[in-house]
Amino acid sequence: MNTIKRHITLLFILIWHFSFAQQFTNYTAKDGLPSNHVYKMVQDVKGFIWIATDKGLVKYNGSDFKKFTTKDGLANNDVWGIYPTPDGKVWYLSKTSKLGYIENDSVHAFESEEKGEIFNPILSSQIGNDIFLTSTNKTHVLKDEKWRLLQENKLGSLDAVRYLKHPKVSYFKTTTLLDSLIIQDKNNRTVKKYDFNNVLKKIHIRGQITDSLFYWVNDKQYNIINLNTLELYKRTFKDEIGIEKSKHVRLNLINNQIQVSGEGFIGVLDENLHIKKKYFIPNNLKAHFGFFDKIGSIWLATFTDGIYQLPIEKQNVNYCLVNNSITNVSYVNNKIIANVFNKGFYKYDTLKGEFIPYINEDSYNYNATFINELGTEYYISKRHLKAVKNNIIKEVKVDSGLYNVNDKARQLVFFNDYLYGVYSVGINKINPNSFNVEASYAQSGINHLFVFNNKLLVATSNGLKFFKDGEFKPINFSNKEFNKSILKITKASKKEVLINTDGFGAFISDLKTIKQLPDSEFLIVNNSYLENETIWLATESGVLKYEKINNNYSLKEVITKSDGLPSNSVSGIVVKGEELIVSTNNGIAILPKNKENNSQLLDIYFENVRYNNQAIVASCDAVLNYVKNNSMNVSISSLDFSEGNSNLLYNYRLEPIQKEWIYSNVKTINFNDLQPGEYELEIQSNAIVKSLNFTIKPLWWQTVWFKIASVLLVVIIIVYMSWLLIRRVQVKKNKKIIEEKRFSELQLSALRSQMNPHFVFNSLAAIQYYINNNQMEASEAYLVKFSKLIRQFFEWSKEKEISLEKEIELLANYLDIEKLRFKDKFEYTINLDENLKNKTTKLPTMLLQPIVENAINHGIFNKMENGNVTINFKALDNKQFKVEVIDDGVGFINTKKRGKRKVKSSNVLADRLKYLNQSGYWEISYSEKELHPNLNDKGNRSTFIIKQL
């Protein structure tokens, strides 16, 4: 059974070596290593890869190699041992007088308590955060910044291991024959004895690897003893992985896993200390050490070629026909056929998982196809055409005789009972039985023929055509002009085809309209494969995967060299079960159809932070002094071992001045003139978020208390000055109002005094007229009315305002006197709106009388016929009313023509209205307009709008 297991293992090793040799990424001194001579590599708790070389120590984050040498504090550049501890330190070992650790990129080195002692810690151990420097006879531990001697053995003693860190087991002993292992407890009593033949006698490495496990390893086996149970586990490499022996074998605790490594393999031990996960290193890499990192990627160290990395994405990829140019891969009669340049056609062997020669051909391969109607496979090259039917291969004569090349058919399709083949300047119509050309049709630039829905489609360098009745006719699309160079046509559905172009992407068409596959613009699409509602495009930029959702295709995935392709120049693609078989110009890759996206971004962090060119520690809440025109420069780095990770993509924001995330691919962030305050700089990539907190202290005049006091003082000054200004303005305003009010009252009194003799003069003139004409009765009646009016006038003229009732009574008495004086030459009417309260509604005293006087003396008086005077009082709202004085006299224009003297009462009215409006008690407007503009006697309408404030 073991023999069968070893044979299977050896077969697996051979296949593995063949398939995976070219997947590795190699880093050498040209890429940033100090030397190509690498002893060992580890991964620390944060995820950084540390590389020990003969020219210094290196910290690698996936893009940058940070070197540590004697210039940085190492006592010796020849570092061959490194141990990362859970507390974030990386301990370095070499043959020197100072050893220590690196923490936060600072080198710490410590001497022995014995001055001048040189360490040779070839058997050192790491247990938790403690490092035990162990040589063949001494063990040291770091205490109080000195390496203190913990245990010393006499050279040649029978103590196999003198010091152990364990509560029960003290040390191991052996015999003079070195064939036994004797376990001693703390009381120096023997508690267990094991047969240890062929272990201690051989050159080996030993050490305590955990708090409960101790190991011995040599070129053929490893032995591990459990210090708690005292059980010994013996494992040979022959039984575990089928290898008789190996060089440079070591056991290491990496990422909480015990990993074993030697020349040609690496492995991970399970809970029973068997090698459960293994990887066989290709011989040509000449690696002597390797390990699996946190994600599962493989790292290898060499003595001559630097280091190698195999990402986890590439570990599931199988490679065939490596370093060969494959012009296409396709299904031919249920076979998967690869067109190998200058070698022929290879068939995929599903049992072996590789391509094997099928039809040899040393010239250029054109095409391989299966004509279902004829049950025949055709393999076409530059010089030959071979037909395969019932597994019988026959040569078909195709050479022209002159150049001994195939110019009959570079591709074949079956259409309307004939074969049609592409040749250099058109297509040939070929008899399928005799294979003779029956007709040739010229058309340059043909790249592909495709039969679809009883049409022979022709892909040309100038768009899509179809062949019918011996002619090539263009296919014109209704939605756009299409004259792109077409390389291949594939069936997309019963009604649609997929058109692949040379540099313009891929298109879907029902031969009536055409639309582009999104995100395929300007791609060279060499080929395509359709599986249900999934489209795979073989392009010069890798493989593009499209899925149909709601009758529209959308790009879901791009597979490139970083995902395991030998090259991004993809010529063909087929799907076989759950595998994707991709042909490129550098071989074939067989990879999972549905690959897992394992991001190798482990962390993003602040590499360097400087404030005004002074470095600050990113891990601490820095307190900085404010400086005018200050600058903050932050360098961002990532811990990412993805292939081609040169561009770091992340978001950042500086709160509280930036609320929204800002996208960036630049590794440096700069801020200028930051004001005093507390800040938090956040960076984000994928699900990783890191923050940097710092405070900028204000100067004394920038403190909050100073600003509050300053604001309060300014507010007090402003309030006081405002109060003084307002007080001064108010005093001036009040004084002005009092003066204006007094002046208005004086003016109104004067006007009233001026108006009274005017009215009296007119009235007395009328009485005199009657007396002179011996009209005693009329003069007596007039005199009675006049005396009554005079009495009312003297009583009410003392008042500033009177009621509407009194005003109407006064106007009626006045109009009666004037009517007597003019011998009933006019009639008058006074109309009062029922909505007006005549007892409570007020108006200025003697406001209307001058207008009524004008209407009679200047309007009616100059009229040849009798006239009418109408006075209307109409309510507008609760606070204002309108008064209209209407006469049908000669009008104001005719009055001016007859006399040059200005009507005095009108001037008085204008002045009176001015002062009434200035008094603050009234708002009165006045207007005049002709009553009958088109008649000789134009009349007049005078209107008051009166509002008491």
**Structural class by SSE content:** alpha+beta
Radius of gyration: 56 Å
What is the averaged pLDDT score? 87
**Total DSSP E strands:** 72
Shape summary: elongated
What topology, given as strand order, has the largest sheet?
Answer: 59-65-64-61-62
How would you sum up the major sheet? 5 strands, mixed
Total helices: the number is: 8
Poorly predicted tracts of residues: 1-22
Binned, the helix content reads: 10-25%
Strand content: 35-45%
Cα end-to-end separation = 121 Å
Description:
- Helix 3 (704-772) packs antiparallel against helix 8 (904-918).
- The protein has 949 residues and is an alpha+beta fold.
- The strands form 18 sheets. The protein has a 5-stranded mixed beta sheet with strand order 59-65-64-61-62, with no helix packed on it. The chain has a 5-stranded mixed beta sheet with strand order 67-69-70-72-71.
- The chain starts with a helix and ends with a strand.
- The protein has 8 helices and 72 strands.
